[in-house]
Amino acid sequence: MPDITIDGADGSFAAYLALPEATPAPAVVVSQEIFGVNKVMRDACDWLAGEGFITCCPDLFWRIEPGIQITDQTEAEWARAFELFQAFDVDKGIEDLKATLASCRDHGSATGKAGSIGYCLGGKMAFLMATRSDSDCNVSYYGVGLDELVGEKDQISKPLMLHVAENDQFFPAEAQAKLKAGLEGHAQVTYHLYKGQDHAFARPKGAHFNQASAELANGRTISFLREHLAS
User: Fold this and answer.
1) CA dist., res. 205 & res. 25, Å (int)
2) Facing residues of 138 across strands?
3) How far is the C-alpha of 29 from the C-alpha of 13, rounded, in Å?
């Protein structure tokens, strides 16, 4: 699948594009983890394309260093990933995702319906796409810092699905409790808790990958996307 260029408010940036066999199709914007648009993110795009979605993952770190593609396999890469996380401008990143969403909607093979999915840092971005964009639906996998975003809950007007790991080392129990309490009863939010699971339980070959939980979350995600992105 090709890399494409997205024109954003502050300049152009690269994105990975995966296309389904059958078109026209709805679109999904994928928000990356802290490791850049690496093989894990490209594989996620290919998986979603195989499920029938035009899928695009933009390089959200392009202002810091374009083309980051590191893994979770070494301490040095983890250190670099956290440096990138600290330097990342969330508000600018949302603008890039909104530009990507608009580009996907305008794709010649698109139906015009478009949603988003995010993992880790991208899980936070997916929550913010639910509050700050016109995305038709959004899915957050083990998003970080979501408890700090509850104040924006009234801006959630389209369906949002949250996959939360009970033992997430980057999203502790007290933060999870604040998030769940803050979103309690919200008509647009579906909250799934994966008991006994740690952060990134759906990342293939990751330290905390759990096949059963990953398959459950991914199945829920595909059903959710098909329901809310149908023409």
Assistant:
1) 30
2) 116, 160
3) 14
Tokens standing for residue 127: 């929550």
Burial of 102 (0-12, 13-18, 19+ CB in 10 A): middle
Q: Which domain holds residue 70?
A: 3-228
Residues 39-53 pLDDT 10s: 999 999 999 999 999
User: Could you tell me the CATH number of the domain that includes residue 8?
Assistant: 3.40.50.1820
Number of domains the chain contains: 1
DSSP β-ladder status, 54-58 and 11-18? antiparallel
Q: What is the pLDDT of residues 154-196, one digit of tens each?
A: 999 999 999 999 999 999 999 999 999 999 999 999 999 999 9
DSSP letters, 29-47, are: EEEP-TTBS-HHHHHHHHH
For the entire predicted model, the pTM comes to: 0.97
Q: Per 3-state DSSP, what percentage of the chain is helix, strand, and coil (rounded to 5)?
A: 40, 25, 35
Q: Which residues pair with 182 in a beta bridge?
A: none
The catalytically annotated residue of 163, 199, 208, 228 is: 199
Told to judge if 186 belongs to the known catalytic residues of this protein, a careful annotator would answer no
Q: Does the annotation count 147 as an active-site position?
A: no
**Angstrom distance (rounded) from CA 215 to CA 156:** 27
Q: Per the residue annotation, which of 168, 198, 208, 228 is the catalytic one?
A: 168
